[in-house]
Structures are given as C-alpha cells and as structure tokens.
C-alpha cells in the first residue's frame, strides 16, 4: 500500500518551514528533493569509500568501482534495457541528448535531412538539433499540439517523410504535463527505418518505463529529477545505434590504445564516458532508483493520478485562473496564468505562504509562443505531495487574487 506519510518522513527537508509556514514544495518538475537514504549514501561515499574508479588496484578504488558500475545494472533494470552495456552515464538528460547529436547525428545526417520535433519539447531537446541545423543544414520539422495540449501521435507519424532520419519527442511535457504516446510513434518510426529519441526527463519520474517495449533507440534520464543528486544521469542507447556512433568526448577511460599517430577506443559503454565521471553522484542516483523501485513505479503513478485529479478539480473552481494544458491523462504538472499578475509576482506571493512553484518559460519557449503566453507559473507535484498541500496552493492563489484584484 502507498503510504505518503511514510514516504514524506524519508525526506528531511519536507519538515522545514519557509517564511514561518510549512514548506509546500511544488517545484518537482525542476528538481525533486532527496530521501535520507540518498543523502546517507553520498555522505558515506565521501567519508569512507571515495577513490577514483576503473584505474586503481587498491581497496578503495575497487570498492568505488564496484559501487559505481553496479548502478549500470540498476538503471538497466529501471528502464528494462536489454543489457547494462546499453546504459551510458551522463550528467543528465541535456548531456545525453548532446551525446546523440554529436555522436550519432553529426555522423549520419546530411544537408536536407530532417528531424521531427514537437512543440512540447524542452530546450534540451531542441538546441542540440539547432546545432546540426546551423552546422550541417539539417531541417527541423515541427508538430504542434492541440489547444488542450495533447499531441496526436499520428500527426508526428505523418510528419515522417523520405528525408526524415530522427524523431526526437518528449514522453511528458514539463509545462503542461501532457503524456505522449511515444510507443506508437517509436514503432511506426522504426518500421520506416527512422531513429527515435524519447526525452524521459519527466516521463521516467512518474511511471514505469520499458524501453524495449517502447521501441526507442535513445532514452535519456536525469538523476536530480528522480530524487537523486544533481550532476547525475544516464542514457539508454540501443546496441545497434551505439555501433553507429563516434565518441562525443575524448580523454581518459574511453580509449583502448593511444599512440602519436592513432587512437583506438574502448568498447561501449566506456567508449562514451571520457574522464573522471561523477562517481558519487552516480552512486547516489543508483540508490535513488532502488528506492523508487522498492516503492513501485506503478504505485507512484497511481497515487500521482489521484493527486492530479484532485488538483484539477480544485483549480477548475478558480474561474479566474488560466490553466495551460488540459489533455486527458495528463500528469500532475499544472502551468497557469492570472490576469493582472505576472507569474513572477504570483510566485513571490505564494512563496510568502511557503508554497514553492516555478515561474518563467520553463525552458520551453516554442511552446510558450504556441500557447500565446510569455511565461507561466508551474506547480509540479511529486509522490510525496498531498491533497493538503494542494489546498495550501489554492489558498495562496486566492490570496494572490485578492492582492492583485
């Protein structure tokens, strides 16, 4: 049974106050808080287990290497990858997508080749493709969402043409909470010989992921959104795609031999992991993923669906609040505006009541332009949030309404 009170007790920061009010942390879409088991694992790694990995023959190096490499198995289990060697460690989704852009896209895309994107994408899944557009003449094809924020998978499939080489699509919008039917898109793209990248930065947080069933070629995740440390992440790259890629970064640990005249590379995954990695961050991410799997991603998804339904009903009662994105089955992410008040001002008033939300464009400017707004406030819920906290959000919004008239 999902016990939110027990889960909340695992996160020490949730017991603090802000501005004399209980902290109501609703900025999880930007970064989630950390459970004590992750904090303890990081502390232990630095205080009694730290050394560089892979190259040492002494006790501490072997211990750190074992703990670090074990996380590859944890991530593979979390994503249901076919093999742990399909997991590449990164600093987060942004690095993962750039790895694909440089290591695969720059090798295989020519002038006039197309990348299909949706307007829902985060900048991390836009800017690396702009690099290829600027440098190699790649064409970006955009697919718009419906007025309610939903994205028709057939519209994405219909955008695939004879010059399309990649479909890069989010699993869940970080602005509207829209869930995208990425499985249908990936299977249709693979049938046409087109590669697929699914941005899992939000989607992996809110429900179970099976990359084999999904059928994607690339699937990056971010550790700090998954209750792990910042600076941690991973990307699933299907083995067949790894064979088509060159390294993104060059240096130590990713080589087999180096001479004055030549370089030969290590086999994946090390081929794509140059230099000293985020050792402790990665270990912490592994503990966070184990923690999530013990709770059960299906259980988390079911609880968050209840939270989303409750929040939707409450926010709908505020007829002066403009919620952006009401797609069926959306996740527990709510972006909104209020006439007469800038999102930054709304966020400031909410903070005085201890309610933490985010304000701005949320690294999704094309979506902002499509929605006809310059910025929104965003309340993004997590597995440790409660209906009482949603009520606090509503009370703070009503105070905001009174303040700004």
Automatic annotation (TrEMBL):
Protein's recorded name: Cysteine desulfurase
Cited SUPFAM superfamilies: PLP-dependent transferases
Keyword Transferase recorded: yes
One BP annotation, GO: cysteine metabolic process
Residue intervals of the Aminotransferase class V domain: 24-393
Its job: Catalyzes the removal of elemental sulfur and selenium atoms from L-cysteine, L-cystine, L-selenocysteine, and L-selenocystine to produce L-alanine.
Catalytic activity field: (sulfur carrier)-H + L-cysteine = (sulfur carrier)-SH + L-alanine
Top-level taxon: Bacteria
Protein family per UniProt: Belongs to the class-V pyridoxal-phosphate-dependent aminotransferase family. Csd subfamily.
EC number: 2.8.1.7
Keyword presence, Transferase: yes
Keywords, alphabetical: Pyridoxal phosphate, Transferase
NCBIfam families named among the record's database cross-references: sufS
